[in-house]
Amino acid sequence: MQNMDLTGIYLRDLDAEATATRKCLKRIPESLYDFKPNPKSMNLGYLALLVAEIPAWITFMIDKGEIDFANYQHFELSTQDKLSAHFEENLVRAKESLKGATEERLAGSFSLKQNGELLYTAKVIEELGATVRHWVHHRGQLTVYMRLNDIAVPSIYGPSADERTF
Questions:
Q1: Nearest to residue 121, comparing CAs of 108, 137, 132?
Q2: Where do the annotations place a divalent metal cation binding (predicted)?
């Protein structure tokens, strides 16, 4: 399969996963941003932010070829509406980057760094799927946090206990 064929698959994956992500993010109240199910866990606000920002990683991979945690600027978490809008912007940019990606860029490298120190390097095309899976993983975590706070979990791949359709 050619790299450009894979971008079409990833575009469809983004569209498919965006629907469930959108439904989850819209249900997270600001009043619970500090909730942690365990002291070792990230708080709910940061997890929701991570879910909203992971599509932006695709843009960084394709357009910049790296992410350095030392200067990665997270969106300032405030209202649920702003978080949802941030997600939509990241999704649009990720799709634009995928649509504009060249074979050469997809075959090129992506590097993850901390203060300029190389942590990881891989081909962009290999990291796209991993990034979508990482996004889905954290959205799954988010649904657990939702359940622990009695927030209705939306239907994602089929009916949920909160949204039975039969």
A1: 108
A2: 134, 138
| Coil, strand or helix at 42 | coil
Q: Find where tokens 């657990």 sit.
A: 144
As a whole number of angstroms, the distance between CA 20 and CA 36 comes to 22
Residue 100 is encoded by which pair of tokens?
A: 């504009």
Q: Environment class of residue 24 by beta-carbon count within 10 Å: exposed (0-12), middle (13-18) or buried (19+)?
A: buried
Chain centre to alpha carbon of residue 67? 14
Of residues 153, 133, 132, the one with CA closest to residue 142: 153
Q: How many CA atoms lie within 13 Å of 63's alpha carbon, on the beta-carbon side? A: 14
Judge whether 138 is annotated as a binding position.
yes
Over residues 81-110, the pLDDT tens digits come to 999 999 999 999 999 999 999 999 999 999
Question: So where are the chain's domains?
Answer: 3-148
Distance CA 150, CA 61 (A): 36
- What does the pLDDT look like over 125-135, one tens digit per residue? 999 999 999 99
Distance in angstroms (rounded) separating the CA atoms of residues 88 and 79: 14
